[in-house]
Specification:
single chain, 10 helices, binds nicotinamide-adenine-dinucleotide, 3-stranded parallel β-sheet, alpha/beta
Length: 285
Amino acid sequence: MTAQIINGKEIAAKKKLEIAEEVARLKTQGITPGLAVILVGRDHASQTYVNNKEKTCKELGMYSLLIEMDEKVSEEELLGKIDELNRDSAIHGILVQLPLPKHIDEKKVIETISPLKDVDGFHPINIGRMMTGQNAFLPCTPYGIMVLLEETGISIAGKNVVVVGRSNIVGKPVGQLFLNQHATVTYCHSRTKDLSLHTNQADILVAAVGIPNFIKAEHVKEGAVVIDVGINRNEAGKLCGDVAFDEVSEKAGFITPVPKGVGPMTITMLMYNTLKSAAESLDRD
Ligand code: NAD
């Protein structure tokens, strides 16, 4: 079997158009969705991510505010800035780019962001709301994966889903979203014994490990849907996922490539969450 490619770039472009239309509609009601991004320090990768977020905001007609803080900024000052943004009615989404310098407590930072503006979906209140199936900001990468499947017409109810990886930002929440949609979910992680035994049961296999080409054809059931979350560099410095694309795409039914798979969906869902926050703030007025 040769897998059908799930084109994340195309699906993201379609979703962004829908978001831009909705932004334009909100503007006629006097509200412009606004996203504040706080960048602490000068990490190169973080700067690239933040620039992309700013650019995409502008493309979609949203207001974007970038706050750059020195690497040595105190935790108190950072929390104070978040508090100020929590009270700023022009801002509907607040994102603090991670990772943060070691002297700053990441958990404290996340919990200081108002759950109503937590467009990353990392606040424990949003995580709890997601788990109990209530209205919540869903974390962007897991949410993007669900949209990819929906747009491709892949059904989820009753499927065996295996998630490799259990991080708080990808593995755990994506499994929860599949469970919410009635899949039977198995988590595998660094201490799982006999990974293949589990992954070969998967109708849908999600790889969120961070190891280049970790999932091989031997891990994949014939015809399975394979979602590759990984963003890695191989030995030659080339961008690659967690899935050995060439061999797995010979066996899978559907597969996401890297790049142009899950990646473009993450930023798109961030924009969607900011739009959702703005729309909900209008309802609260
Ligand atoms: P992480 O390092 O926090 O978690 C990795 C997980 O892999 C851990 O839970 C660990 O238990 C598991 N793991 C490690 N070794 C394993 C092994 N031998 N067998 C089974 N499981 C093993 O990483 P993360 O933040 O979840 O990110 C995972 C990957 O996804 C990275 O490549 C990251 O860059 C990428 N990522 C992509 C996006 C995107 O937008 N596409 C977003 C976030 C992360």
